[in-house]
Recover the amino acids of this structure.
């Protein structure tokens, strides 16, 4: 068997899962392929990746091609700090306005559309562009950024006291539904899972162990995060300790299904989704 290709999102939120792999602290021997979520989605669906964190909405659209690995997600219970809408006007006053959404994401764009339709009841025009806050706000009245781009932009807004409204989509989703929000899942190609079930179990266990090694070594995570992203250490520490989560318990699964229900109501997906998680077997 050739070395498996494992996608790695180049955002802070993935550092806890990948720290042990990057530092040789895990026996999982894979080739890491780095990129933003949208790029990794494309590589996985084209067969160039065997395992990857995939945007939650892309799992719903391609559930027959993959199996969810257990005990792993990129989630938050309320504020997420890295999925932010920057707007010149309050969100409720954006009716008929243009809103730029980042080309880096899929799940967060759908989340924003759901919130506009079902929570704010505001109709806007969406424009997809590269993640650049200044450019986005030069052609629209609001801009959605995710990941490190969102966190750095928010820090700049605070430092420069820019006259912008900053809306945390995770926080609004919590207000709207009372649920957590699951932004990404780790998946493995279905044909591989069928052919090598024992190997899938081993990989799933090692990825979970890698996550636990990372979360139990916070000084190392903070040091790595600071080298990658010029945010203050207290901001990074708050993000890892109090904001971003990587569990996929029944509560997180229920929250994800709630998101899928609203995506279905909004016409984003054609049918309601069932979660096919490896620990529960393949269907």
């Amino acid at each position: 068997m050739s070395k498996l290709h494992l996608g790695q999102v180049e955002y802070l939120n993935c550092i806890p899962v990948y720290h042990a792999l990057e530092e040789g602290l895990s026996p999982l021997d894979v080739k890491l392929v780095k990129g933003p979520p949208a790029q990794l989605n494309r590589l996985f669906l084209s067969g160039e990746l065997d395992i990857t964190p995939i945007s939650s909405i892309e799992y719903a659209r391609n559930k027959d091609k993959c199996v969810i690995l257990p005990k792993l997600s990129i989630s938050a219970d309320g504020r997420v700090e890295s999925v932010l809408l920057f707007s010149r006007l309050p969100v409720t006053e954006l009716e008929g306005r243009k809103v730029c959404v980042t080309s880096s994401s899929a799940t967060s764009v759908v989340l924003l559309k759901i919130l506009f339709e079902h929570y704010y009841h505001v109709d806007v025009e969406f424009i997809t562009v590269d993640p650049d806050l200044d450019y986005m706000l030069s052609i629209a009245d609001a801009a959605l950024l995710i990941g490190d781009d969102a966190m750095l932009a928010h820090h700049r807004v605070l430092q420069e006291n820019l006259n912008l409204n900053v809306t945390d989509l995770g926080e609004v989703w919590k207000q709207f539904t009372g649920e957590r929000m699951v932004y990404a899942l780790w998946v493995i190609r279905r044909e591989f899972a069928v052919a090598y079930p024992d190997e899938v179990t081993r990989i799933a266990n090692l990825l979970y162990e890698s996550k636990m090694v990372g979360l139990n070594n916070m000084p190392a995570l903070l040091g790595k995060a600071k080298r990658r992203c010029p945010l203050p250490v207290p901001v990074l520490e708050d993000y890892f300790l109090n904001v971003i989560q990587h569990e996929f318990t029944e509560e997180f699964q229920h929250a994800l299904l709630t998101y899928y229900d609203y995506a279905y109501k909004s016409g984003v997906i054609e049918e309601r989704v069932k979660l096919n998680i490896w620990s529960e077997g393949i269907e």
Q: What stands out?
A: The mean pLDDT is 95. The two ends are 25 Å apart (CA to CA). The first strand starts at residue 4 and ends at 9.
